[in-house]
Amino acid sequence: MVGGNNTFGKTICSICYEDLKPLVEDLQSISICGHVFHELCLQQWFEYCTNGKKKNCPVCKQTCSEVNVGRLYFQSVGDTNDPSTLSQKPRDCEENPEELRREVKRLEGKVSGLSLALESQQKEFNDVSEEVVDFFIICLVAQTIREKERKLI
């Protein structure tokens, strides 16, 4: 939705429910259905879906995958160095301590979520690494047995 002053208003990421700011944030769209999200939010969504779940659009639940995702690029007719075209959030936070507290709490929540995702990925990595070591040992044993059998023949 475009407002009269060429700024996006009331467009939100359906994953984190925060405003989409196309000129200052990386946004991605699922090509199958066209829904738009923050890039990081969509990456986290797909990581969450890898836990045995079918990957789908968070909004319409249409089956999709990372190959159906594309980054959106926006051009601005205004000066991108003009502070009035950039996000107002930092200025709002400086002027309103309560807004700053909310922003800190939101960011702490994101950090917590990312930490959990990282922990899960590390566990999965460790499990796969152990499997690789186990298969390597099995291969070495099998190779040793084959070499001994060849020497006996």
TrEMBL record:
User: Which residue stretches, if any, does this entry annotate as coiled coil?
Assistant: none
One of the Pfam families matching this protein, by short name: zf-RING_2
Establish whether keyword S-adenosyl-L-methionine is in the entry. Answer: no
> Example GO molecular function term?
zinc ion binding
PROSITE patterns listed in its UniProt record: ZF_RING_2
Keyword Zinc applies: yes
What region holds the RING-type domain?
Answer: 13-61
**Hey, what's the signal peptide range on this chain?**
none
Q: What is this protein called?
A: RING-type domain-containing protein
Q: What is the organism of origin for this protein?
A: Ilex paraguariensis
